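Exercise 7b. Backbone tokens:
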């Protein structure tokens, strides 16, 4: 894949968020969008035709221009696809990529993930807004998923956000902003794990897709052996894993921790025997700590792309967060946002399965928040620093906020401009662009990555 194609795949540099910011780099993260940024539809990347098909081989039998409005149109069927494609990472990016490859006629697609499968789509667990953090799917993501033929299923589990109700210091009352009218679409909100579960069930519910895609949960990639001969496969070693969940005692103790201390997190332990997989085509969709990306970066062979560079941005404006469940009965299609006058901010998004999940964002050394021990403490905090949201609270939500551990946001990361190794390895999603969730809707860039890869093939 030429570097000009790779640069087009690194689309996170144009993220549009619910809150109206554009994510470019930490230095400009708070730049307000101008109206021309609020595009109602996905804008096709301007890829050079002479560069499209050559790097991955002339496998196209037909090339029909995709139509954003018709999910079954524009499908290219490859004449001679790789015999053993492997995708590392079965989050929304990896699963959507598997669907794309299967629609192109690829078979024997193996998808691996170190974590266990999410609950089924109809599980009662999704009624708990704290079960999984929410992601926002904007017009770019919706158009990309429609091209992949999965949008109808995804849309069915999403909540609509048509605007934002915000409170800012120095202004009386709230301001309602109709973002749908400005942008030409409703932002769709869905818990990240439910999005993953929906894509799993989309694959398993399709005889065509399930016959082409195999998903291996609780299976971790532990070693990547690159070949200096592009005609030979990549050797990937996998092992079964066990998820270690913090005990209730650990979780209870964590609420007394300060924001500078790590909250108890689930960890993964390798428990199975090694299994070596020979892969003719590898997609790295394994997130911020990508095993595939790291192997490509450490490659010292002539096949290593000179433009393959990873940059982790220094976080000079560190923020952490705690969540709080809310039971909002009216105007449930709004993003609620409150900016305090003391560097404590609040945002809340709905879920279709019930309830809102609020996020309180603050500096890690802010003892006004980290010192909260009881529900009464929490209520006093909000009354003093975020009084606008007090009517949205209940005693139960304040108690839960007090017991919640502090969480950290991911670090900004970008990879590129080269995102591939020869003709048989490519990177997608968070392993090439990681952003903080309150600055941009990163999953949309990941879905666009897949559309660009589809064109590049």
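Sequence design result:
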């Amino acid at each position: 894949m030429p570097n000009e194609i790779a640069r087009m795949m690194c689309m996170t540099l144009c993220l549009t968020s619910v809150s109206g910011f554009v994510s470019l780099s930490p230095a400009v993260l708070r730049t307000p969008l101008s109206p021309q940024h609020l595009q109602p539809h996905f804008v096709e990347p301007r890829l050079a035709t002479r560069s499209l098909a050559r790097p991955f081989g002339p496998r196209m039998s037909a090339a029909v221009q995709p139509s954003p409005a018709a999910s079954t149109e524009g499908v290219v069927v490859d004449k001679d696809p790789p015999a053993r494609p492997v995708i590392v990472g079965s989050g929304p990016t990896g699963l959507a990529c598997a669907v794309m490859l299967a629609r192109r006629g690829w078979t024997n697609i193996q998808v691996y993930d170190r974590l266990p499968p999410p609950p089924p789509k109809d599980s009662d667990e999704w009624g708990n807004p704290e079960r999984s953090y929410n992601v926002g799917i904007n017009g770019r993501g919706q158009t990309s998923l429609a091209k992949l033929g999965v949008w109808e299923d995804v849309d069915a589990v999403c909540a609509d956000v048509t605007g934002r109700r915000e409170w800012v210091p120095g202004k009386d009352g709230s301001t309602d902003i109709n973002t749908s009218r400005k942008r030409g679409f409703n932002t769709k909100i869905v818990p990240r794990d439910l999005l993953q579960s929906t894509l799993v069930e989309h694959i398993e519910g399709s005889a065509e897709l399930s016959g082409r895609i195999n998903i291996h949960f609780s299976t971790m990639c532990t070693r990547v052996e690159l070949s200096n001969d592009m005609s030979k496969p990549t050797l990937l070693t996998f092992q079964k894993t066990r998820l270690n969940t913090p005990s209730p005692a650990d979780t209870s103790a964590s609420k007394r921790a300060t924001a500078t201390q790590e909250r108890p997190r689930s960890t993964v332990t390798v428990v199975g025997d090694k299994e070596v997989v020979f892969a003719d085509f590898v997609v790295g969709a394994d997130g911020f700590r990508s095993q595939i990306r790291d192997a490509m970066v450490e490659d010292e062979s002539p096949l290593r792309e000179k433009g393959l560079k990873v940059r982790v941005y220094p976080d000079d404006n560190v923020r952490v967060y705690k969540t709080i469940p809310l039971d909002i009965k009216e105007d449930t299609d709004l993003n609620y946002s409150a900016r305090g006058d003391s560097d404590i901010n609040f945002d809340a998004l709905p879920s279709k399965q019930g309830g809102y999940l609020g996020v309180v964002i603050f500096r890690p050394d802010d003892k006004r928040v980290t010192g909260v021990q009881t529900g009464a403490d929490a209520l006093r905090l909000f009354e003093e620093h975020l009084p606008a949201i007090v009517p949205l609270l209940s005693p139960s939500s304040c108690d839960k906020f007090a017991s919640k551990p502090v969480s950290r946001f991911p670090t900004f990361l970008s990879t590129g401009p080269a995102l591939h190794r020869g003709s048989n390895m490519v990177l997608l999603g968070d392993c090439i662009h990681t952003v903080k969730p309150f600055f941009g809707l990163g999953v949309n860039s990941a879905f666009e990555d897949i559309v660009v890869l589809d064109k590049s093939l």
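Instructor comment: Residues 142 and 151 are 7 Å apart (CA to CA). The chain is about 25% helix and 25% strand.
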